[in-house]
Amino acid sequence: MKxxxxxxxxxLSFSFAFAQNKPTFSVVGNATNKESLLKNKRLDISKIKVExxxxxxxxxxxxxxxxxxxxxxxxxxCQHGACQIGIPKGSIFNKLNADQQGFIAxxxxxxxxxxxxxxxxxxxxxxxxxxxxxxxxEVEVL
Length: 142
What we know:
Blueprint: H1 2-21, E1 25-28, E2 32-37, E3 43-52, E4 60-67, E5 74-79, E6 82-85, E7 90-92, E8 101-109, E9 115-125, E10 128-141
Parallel strand pairs: 2-10
Antiparallel strand pairs: 1-3, 3-8, 4-7, 4-9, 5-6, 5-8, 9-10
């Protein structure tokens, strides 16, 4: 009897651990955007979408893991539910309901400065931080 009870506990533990790692969101399309523009133009928006693929609301967290944009560029970014000046260190999306899409987007005004840069964001569900996606924006100003 003790062996059967122990097996049930072990199986339930594995089932629960597996369920927690099941993806609750996915990237819609490509996780990398490559943009090219002239130095006297502006990148109005470059957007990467994510979708809640679970059957319940989720809260996505994002963190900037690298940013090599030239300091002379005027940049800002938006997320599902808010916009910020510059490229902040991180934030949390507004609630994404089941089947709802959210996004991370960047805006660049190069102020007549040529160059290139990459910004990468790590994104994950607050309730499931082990499942991570990296969203990358590569910008070249000619």
